[in-house]
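I am writing to request your help with a piece of structural work I have in hand. I am sending you one protein, given as its amino acid sequence and as whole-number tokens for its backbone shapes. Kindly check, if you would, that the fold set down in the tokens agrees with what the sequence suggests. You will find the record immediately after this paragraph:
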Amino acid sequence: MARVLGIGIATLDWVQTLEQYPPIDSEVRAQRQFLWRGGNATNSLVVLSQLGEQCSWLGTLADDVFAELICADLDRNQVDYSHCPRIEHAVSPASHILLCSDSDSRNIVHYRDLRELEIDECISLDFSAWDWIHIEGRNVQTTLTLMSHLQQKYPDVIVSLEIEKPRQGIEQLYDYADHLLFGRQYVSSQGFSSVRPFLEQLQASLTSPKDIVCAWGEQGAMALSIENEYFEVPALDVTVVDTRGAGDVFNAAYIHARINGEGLQQSVEQACLLAGKKCAQQGLDKLV
């Protein structure tokens, strides 16, 4: 069992399934409704906990009733959040998600005014308490200071960085991570229609080579190793029920495999398998 810290946000996801996306000024009836805790880092931690790792989360928590729902779910999944600062008079972030059967589309409206972590709330911690730290690529300047601190003070702690979407200056973070995990949205935003040229160009730009992985939805995942070996892994062939959180599941399975000594290709294969299993079910419960 490894000790894993995830740094990022937690949200509430209000999910409704519809036959089709509603037209303007219409009133439609949902087929089903769910209320789930969301957020990339906390999703990954819940799955890592299922996989047997000892998990902690660092992020900000509001002091409203919705934060209690978030905490209750983390308690149920044995994810520690004792290091999280509580922000008074704040509102928990929420995503309203429409899953539309006719197009298999997922439409998200996200609300957030809860502040991000501040650097003093991070560097005061003793990070030697963890073996692996997984960081959402957001809040760039604070994250840059934190990752530099980790590299200087805790060089033995393994750090993975998730880059889901483009953010100004996020490229500054890459050299401070041991593993880079990209999402399709980011790669596409950089003008690449295929993954291999992106991975090779990025690898050449880094101060030192790294294992770089890109999850690409129904096309599986692509990776480039420290030794510049490129390979692709197909996605699991399933009947898709819900893709929400599939990327977070992918990241969790990858981290778990690497913790347990698997190589890059084997880790990506395991990540694709578990992410595919997630797509075939609603939510993250009993995924493992």
User: Anything to note?
Assistant: Residues 3-20+33-279 form a domain with the UDP-N-acetylmuramoyl-L-alanine:D-glutamate ligase fold (CATH 3.40.1190.20).
